[in-house]
Design goal:
Helix content is 61%, strand content 0%. The chain is mainly alpha-helical.
């Protein structure tokens, strides 16, 4: 059985490319990298906290789909 450390590393590897693609899309949409990474950190933290409150979100409404227009900064 894999240790928690091994599972953590495997999970980081598994989500690395998707995370890079997301951040690249946000930056290409016009957000500054510092803001994009700060927002990603905050969203991940908030989702982790929400998961602690409601680990079975199957009955929750579907999240809004992200589109390029929805990630453009408002100027």
């Amino acid at each position: 059985m894999a240790s928690d450390v091994d599972m953590q590393i495997d999970c980081e590897i598994a989500i690395d490319m998707a995370t890079r693609d997301l951040v690249d899309a946000v930056i290409q949409a016009g957000w500054p990298p510092k803001i994009a990474y700060s927002a990603l950190k905050n969203v991940a933290r908030n989702q982790a906290l929400a998961y602690q409150d409601d680990p079975d979100s199957a009955d929750d409404p579907e999240p809004e789909q992200i589109t390029v227009g929805s990630i453009l900064p408002s100027l």
